[in-house]
Write a structure and sequence with these properties.
Elements (H helix, E strand, L loop, with lengths): L3 H15 L7 H8 L3 H5 L5 H26 L4 H18 L4 H7 L6 H29 L7 H23 L8 H18 L9 H17 L1
Helix pairs in contact: 1-2, 1-4, 1-6, 4-5, 4-7, 5-7, 5-10, 7-8, 8-9
């Protein structure tokens, strides 16, 4: 049975993504969950805290996905590096059905603060995960990396940048992918392989992203 805190989060999410974050009041939330005002304030002091709890839920889902892959993995660090990259894109695919809601959720004046927090938290999580993978791979002799944490942080930022560029490509009028985007993928792929000390392109950036975009377009078409 769902506890009162989870009921508040669930009701708030539905209100934020239909009525809008700014137009939703705490009274609206209390009315939906059928709780007292005291019951609400026992768990949250403001709408901002609820929004933070909602975004934390997304981050927790990504973290669980990452560590499910890590804990089940029996192969090389190169394979794990690729699997985590693929896992991130599989997670993004799963969000497509909620894109309209997510856009509504974060469309309010002053949203830059929460978006900045989401970006920072994602970077910290992904950098931590990749630091473990890179460090382990270096110990095994698969990678030759001197500055593990710095490279992991760089890669986390690159993942977000690729995601931003991919989203722009998906929603532009022209169907064909731009040469600039393709070159960015190729550059990123060459860069990460070089920095890991891999002579061939063992880390698959371009093919993973292009497969992701193909799948997204199919999902959008079916919708």
């Amino acid at each position: 049975m769902m506890n009162i805190k989870d009921k508040i989060i669930e009701a708030s999410y539905e209100l934020f993504t239909t009525k809008g974050y700014e137009k939703t009041t705490i009274s609206d939330i209390i009315k939906v969950i059928g709780s007292s005002r005291g019951g609400f304030y026992h768990h949250f002091n403001s709408k901002e805290e609820i929004l933070e709890a909602i975004t934390a839920g997304y981050l927790n889902e990504i973290e669980k996905s990452y560590y499910t892959v890590i804990n089940d993995h029996k192969g090389s660090s190169v394979e794990l590096f690729n699997k985590i990259f693929e896992t991130f894109h599989h997670y993004k695919e799963g969000q497509v059905k909620d894109w309209t809601k997510l856009q509504k959720l974060f469309s309010f004046e002053g949203n830059h603060a929460i978006i900045l927090k989401i970006t920072r938290d994602f970077n910290e999580l992904t950098a931590r995960v990749y630091a473990e993978i890179i460090g382990d791979g270096t110990k095994k002799g698969e990678f030759t990396v001197k500055y593990t944490e710095a490279l992991a942080e760089l890669w986390a930022r690159e993942m977000l940048q690729i995601n931003r560029l991919a989203r722009k490509e998906l929603f532009k009028k022209e169907k064909n992918l731009s040469k600039t985007f393709i070159h960015q993928l190729e550059f990123t792929e060459e860069m990460i392989n070089r920095e890991l000390g891999l002579k061939d392109l063992s880390i698959k950036v371009k093919s993973t992203v292009l497969n992701y975009m193909h799948d997204i377009r199919e999902i959008i078409t079916l919708k």
